[in-house]
Amino acid sequence: MDSYDIIIVGGGPGGLTAGIYAGRQGTKNLILDKDLAGGIGREVPEMENYPGYENISGLKLTEIMKTQAEKNTEIHEFENVLNIEKNDDGFTVKTDKNEYLTKTVILATGSSHSHLNVPGEEEFLGRGVSYCATCDGLFFQSRDIIMVGGGNSALQEAIYLKNLGCNVTIVHRRDEFRAQKHLQNMVKAEGISVIYNATVEEIKGDMIVESVVLKDTKTEELSEMKTDGVFISVGYIPHTELAVQLGVNLDETGHIIVDKEQKTNVEYVYAIGDVCVGLKQWVVACGEGAVAATSAYHDIKQG
Questions:
Q1: pLDDT in tens, 54-81
Q2: Which pTM was predicted?
Q3: All domains in the chain, ordered by first residue
Q4: Which residues are designated catalytic?
């Protein structure tokens, strides 16, 4: 059974950064990701707030980081971690392909898209319903679509879809956006239509999406709106199954609680990125990855 100093579960921005820092410290490390490295960060259409780049897509930045990380750590993509057990020498990490021993674990398990949980959402997934503008936007050029949500991701994707040539309308359940002001200004500048105080109650169609049922959150009046597609960006659900197995403490929202060194309440277990309490930003995850890898290194040396 292969043995490592640090195993990082998840190859998103935080996990890749942790791998870079861990490798440069001279430890033996492994990143395990159930999919492609980068996670949902690959779906970000463009970023204007990542230091060093005036504008870069999540996919492009992921590939740059992955290339750098591969010089410092092993990366196993499409290898899903099923279980992590504490043992006398550290931890046994069991995947769907192998088992590994490690002295420390960094949980960078990220999050997945929240769903609306309305009729038609699952039925029309891939047939007009999407959670990824960069994945599916090209299919909707010159067509009418709605973007559901009011945070940074929703507005970023709405702008991206508009620039692709889609006819975009944002549907938001409140009377104002939660997104950063510059994104709100860009939505106005692009002339993107917005329906405030509305929720999607049902997604309708025959073989593909044809319309949505909207409810006015103030009057509760229902109306039907024709659309060719529904893009959904209403938040994320942290992946904490492995954390729960290990007895890691979560907060009331289901996120992992860590200290300033990214340590959890379980010795030699650290957590970073969207699975943790805190600001959900690419640059934050990278910083946390650097801190966690350094903390793990020091703990190994002192232990």
A1: 889 999 999 999 999 999 999 999 999 9
A2: 0.82
A3: 2-112+236-302 (3.50.50.60), 115-232 (3.50.50.60)
A4: 132, 135-136
